[in-house]
Amino acid sequence: METERILLRPWQESDAETLFKYASDPDVGPRAGWPPHQSVEESLEIIRTVFSAEGMWAVIWKETGQPIGCVGYLPAPASNLKIAEDQAEIGYWIARPYWGKGICTEALRMVIDYCFNEKGFIVLWGDYFPSNPASGRVMEKCGFVDTGKETLCPNLEVGSDRPVRVMKLERL
Fold it and tell me: DSSP letter string over 30-93?
């Protein structure tokens, strides 16, 4: 899956150093519910365990060929939300130098298309911390609507005690 600027591909172990470069930024992970990475070894372990799951992709900046973020979906059993089997939760993060450039929106649109047209999900869910409104705007640009609900996500490593706003996108 690709656009003019980015492509989505599975994470590779060789991405660990670049992942650490961006995921160690203290302003990136906590906005998405995870702590900053402490070492290249930790980033490698995340690639092997978390990012190797089905439905997770590295966001590759074509100009450099390097990963600059992550985007994907969580099926119902892995979701932070209580959702049905024919639904999924989306998630994403992007490295700080690439904030505000529409990259997350591009990446999320590709994942939405994949989830609806390849996986057959009928509803996609997303959530974000109110302190990170840019994440909510990404979902809005992709057609998600605010449900008006907030919930806690006890599975998050960072922010499990802070409410998230819940967004929803139904297949047309």
Answer: HHHTSPPP--HHHHHHHHHHTTTSTTEEEEEETTTTEEEEEEEEEEGGG-SS---TTEEEEEEE
| Token pair listed for 116 | 């609806």
Q: Give the other-Cβ count within 10 Å of 119's Cβ.
A: 15
- Closest to 121 (Cα-Cα) out of 91, 94, 85, 155: 85
What percentage of the chain has pLDDT greater than the value 70?
Answer: 100
3-class secondary-structure state, position 97: helix
Token digits for 133? 């409104």
Max Cα-Cα span within the chain: 43
- pLDDT tens for 47-78 read 999 999 999 999 999 999 999 999 999 999 99
Quote the CA–CA distance of 6 and 62 in Å, as a whole number: 5
Which structure tokens are listed for 127? 């959530």
